[in-house]
Design a protein that fits this description.
The complex is a heterodimer of chains A (82) and B (383). By secondary structure, chain A is mainly alpha-helical. Chain A is built from 4 helices and no strands. Chain A has helices at 3-17, 32-36, 40-54, 69-81. Chain B has 8 helices and 19 strands. The chains are: A mainly alpha (82), B alpha+beta (383).
Chain lengths: 82, 383
């Protein structure tokens, strides 16, 4: 998957969690949890959605790395490659 | 029409899901009702066959109004109610109609160009005006005077904002009532959450995301089990009398995005294994935010548990949701200094609070209840 399509996937899944932000411009380096007002249940649903769509298992110990949209994309690219 | 909250007076029947002649069993969803808390699925308590639907789709009726007749186990002999067209969603209330646009009559009516322009802009019918200009001509001032009296078309608020406003009003009403009628007392304690945290990390390391546990599951379970030994915190206070419940249904406070709060129950929380509790919580949150909560989930909680989650502050003191008699609040877990075996060390801590109805219980029992929750959380594998 290309970086662009990964980014689209990530944005789509975030949009599913925070539907009121659909269509809004978001800062890809801003802290995800702050920017989208995401709690741990939302975050779990996000991880589950990424797992289903991309077949990537993100262990709990890696959650801290997923702190911005760009960070998530970078993580997913590395996971796909590795 | 069931009562789904302390201050609900009426509900709108949006959609019938069962029709005359359909068999129903206890727990089946028979209709969708629109309330200030959103669209709620109404469950049937009786077994039998639907004989007659008494309320039409779209009708708003007071709480307590019979909605349907169900014959126990028999085929209906009465003529069924005329079928109504099914609607899939609550229709937004239509905006109040704008005043009909009027065309400005030109021939035969003397009015200044400025008056005509203004009348056209403001949808004022020149024919209805008495002119104050020369020869009875209508001048701009005449239009201005009238235009001020024309009510502006109500801007239809988007249905979603209206729903949010109604939910806010429902919350305001029940919280105000709670503070007016329930004499609250408060106790709190700091709990070492490290054993729970360690246990969760170990359990989740081996699980795919779909079955991972969040801390709210063991917290809720600990409250439910503790309630078995402290029944005075489980139930309701209605019409001047305490009504303890013999079953434990913990309501979980769920924040809705863009404001609003619901606290639907997980039935028989104390009997639910932690894994199943997690599945139930995920499902409740999904339906709380997306629609589809059931009437029993809203009317049955015997206590509420509220939590600040990961992004909050140390402590939360809840307001009891009438007619319940207690609410447990959990602050945000934090790393802090703690004494273990006489030494200061860093542990994960959480502040738990109890707000309780002083007509029903007192601080001594309240503190023992919190202490029991603490004790249960020190052995999470036993939950």
């Amino acid at each position: 998957m290309t970086t662009e399509s990964l980014k689209t996937t990530v944005l789509t899944e975030l949009g599913n969690i925070a539907p009121e932000l659909d269509g809004e411009v978001v800062d890809p380096d801003a802290d995800l949890r702050e920017e989208f007002d995401i709690d741990s249940m939302d975050f779990l649903n996000f991880v589950i959605a990424l797992h289903k769509r991309l077949d990537v298992d993100i262990p709990e110990s890696d959650y801290a790395k997923l702190n911005s949209i760009n960070a998530v994309v970078t993580y997913l690219e590395a996971a796909a490659a590795g | 029409m069931p009562s789904l909250g302390a201050d609900m007076d009426a509900g709108t029947l949006v959609e019938w899901l069962k029709h005359p002649g359909d068999p129903v069993a206890r727990g089946d969803i028979i209709a969708v009702v629109e309330t200030q808390k959103g669209a709620i699925e109404v469950e049937v308590f009786d077994q039998g066959t639907v004989a007659k639907l008494l309320v039409e789709e779209g009708a708003t009726v007071p709480v307590g109004t019979p909605l349907a007749v169900i014959n126990g186990g028999e085929v209906a002999s009465e003529a069924p109610a005329a079928p109504t067209p099914a609607v899939t969603q609550a229709e937004p209330r239509p905006p109040r109609a704008a005043p009909a646009a009027v065309s400005v009559r030109s021939a035969g009516l003397r009015a200044s160009p400025a008056a005509r322009r203004l009348a056209s802009e403001r949808n004022v019918d020149l024919a209805g005006l008495i002119g104050s200009g020369p020869g009875g001509a209508i001048v701009r001032a005449d239009v201005e005077r009238t235009a001020d009296l024309v009510p502006e078309a109500e801007i239809a608020s988007p249905p979603e904002d209206k729903a949010r406003l109604e939910m806010r009003q429902a919350i305001a009403a029940s919280m105000a009532r709670s503070k007016r009628e329930i004499p609250h007392y408060y106790v709190s304690t700091t709990i070492d959450l490290t054993p729970v945290e360690t246990w969760l990390a170990q359990a989740n390391a081996d699980r795919p995301p779909t079955t991972r546990l969040l801390v709210s599951a063991p917290l809720l379970k600990a409250v439910a089990i503790a309630l078995r030994r402290f029944p005075e915190f489980n139930g309701s206070y209605l019409d001047g009398a305490v009504r303890p419940s013999d079953r434990i249904h913990c309501g979980m406070a769920i924040a809705l995005r863009r404001g609003g709060l619901v606290a639907p129950a997980v039935h028989d929380t104390d009997k639910c294994p932690v894994d199943d509790l997690m599945v139930a919580l995920l499902d409740l949150v999904k339906r709380a935010r997306g629609g589809g909560l059931r009437s029993s989930e809203l009317s049955d909680p015997t206590i509420t548990v509220t939590s600040l989650g990961e992004r909050g502050v140390d402590a939360l003191f809840g307001v009891i949701y009438p007619p319940q008699v207690a609410i447990i609040g959990f602050g945000t877990p934090r790393v802090g200094p703690w004494v273990v075996d006489g030494q200061i060390t860093a542990r994960t801590l959480v502040t738990a609070s109890l707000s309780a109805d002083h007509r029903v219980s007192d601080g001594h029992r309240g503190s023992l209840f919190l202490a029991e929750i603490d004790r249960l959380l020190q052995e999470p594998e036993m939950l």
